[in-house]
């Protein structure tokens, strides 16, 4: 098996697989992939699938088994089917473990694994597959290797030379402390690849880690790969790991889907084009940082990217929906719900509520929003419509949003009551409005509509409401 090869040989061997071979390795349409009929969305085992989720942590694989199972069951019961999984090991919660073996003298040996870490990771993969819950992995998280904000994560991390028996400060090029915010990009950990500083000492252990991760993930077909969490690093870093992962998969006659997540809140920023302009490498885009924006700007930013990618559509994922009362960014529960629903109607392929310190996680409001979204989907498959705010008039900023197909159906979202005019002139025959109360996740009233033309549309009450306008049976 591949895992039996020495790490240095395996890393070299994987690197020799050609990019063409990596692209050609695309077996039967069983796994998660862009849907051939509408590549803005994902498909699984040949059928389109909309990814909706929320979770109370970013690295659920580290959780104790009982708590992990309970979280996945709650998600699945709500109709959720996606989680985020960083490969993090920050030790912040008291139960997290590192992937490397710790010796009796307290130092780590990067040439030996802590099997408990990988046992937990494998369990998460099995349990999500069992429930058809998809996993978007982030391979590297810049916050794991920093002392910013008074943390001691780098101080205690096995990659810090003072904590391992494998290399010194001189050999690795590392410093004892990294107190700056990782957005400053001063940590040499993220400069090791051949087209950067070519740090072979550290890169060998990074490749060994990624290969072991792939040993666990490649037997499964429900996994997506994002290289980093909200990086501001160099382009060469992410491209190296995207190619490395694809080549390793191709060597096993598999094809995997990868992306990078940039830190810029402004999706028009040049850095995002490192992903947008390279569909030959990046199979989808993650625009999670758009969730730092509010209201109409949040919608407009997303639509800008959709228009930019329209010549070669790809799934647009948003794996971190921020917004919760009292959170560290100052955003509210309402912000979180609005962002989830705006992205849903704007055409996102995957939408997930972020963890509770800055999002709704999987609390009752998140569960209700997911249930409401599935009710809308039961009437209008979201891959059958597209953003269509041009059909609305007498509308104030952020008052209502619509997605539609020519002649209908029409999916409408109201963040807080209101009234707009909706142009139904292309619709044929009588219609019916099915209201959905997003606060409860339950159906609201049903209203018949007769004839085409523009109608005045107002939800049954204040708060968040969705409407599915379909042909009357």
Write up this protein.
By secondary structure, the chain is α/β, with parallel strands linked by helices. The relative contact order is 0.11. Helix 1 crosses helix 7, helix 3 (65-78) packs parallel to helix 4 and helix 10 (295-308) packs parallel to helix 11 (333-346). The longest helix has 18 residues, at 200-217. Helix content is 29%, strand content 22%. Helix 8 (235-251) links the parallel strand 9 and strand 10 (258-259). Mean pLDDT is 93; it is low at 1-25.
SSE layout and pairing:
Layout lengths: L6 H9 L3 H6 L8 E3 L2 E7 L2 E3 L1 E4 L10 H14 L3 E5 L13 E3 L5 E6 L1 H16 L3 E8 L11 H4 L12 H4 L27 H18 L5 E7 L5 H17 L6 E2 L13 H4 L8 E2 L8 H14 L7 E6 L11 H14 L3 E4 L10 H16 L6 E2 L4 E2 L7 E4 L5 E5 L5 E4 L7 E7 L4 E8 L4 E4 L7 E7 L2
Parallel strand pairs: 4-13, 5-8, 8-9, 9-10, 11-12, 12-13
Antiparallel strand pairs: 1-2, 2-3, 6-7, 14-16, 15-18, 16-17, 17-22, 18-21, 19-20, 19-22
